[in-house]
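SEQUENCE-TO-STRUCTURE ENTRY
===========================

Subject: a protein chain together with a token-level encoding of how that chain folds.

Sequence line: the amino acid chain in single-letter code, read from start to end.

Question of interest: how does this chain fold, as expressed in backbone structure tokens?
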Amino acid sequence: MDNERIERIKEMERIYDEAIKAVDDFGEAFDKYLDARELFIKLADYYEADWREDFEADEEGKLPPDLKRGVLSEDGLYDLFTENDFNLSYITLPDPPDDENE
């Protein structure tokens, strides 16, 4: 038997299994992201319409102290939208490098 060939096939099978899992995981995550698009739109609309007023009410102590208010942090929504834009930039991936040009 050709041990080198057998080891190569074993290694490629391991890589194949890992690649299948990565593609499956990405598909599931992407589906979840697509389902959340309406949530991003609602947050963007909120930021444009009512956020400033709610933020100021919080600053003036007009909100209950036990109210969760992560959405009112000055950088929270901005950071979320920025990270979202950054992640979206990866949807169109560049072609992998050509082995001949490396």
In short: The chain is about 65% helix and 0% strand. The chain has two domains: 1-35, 37-91.
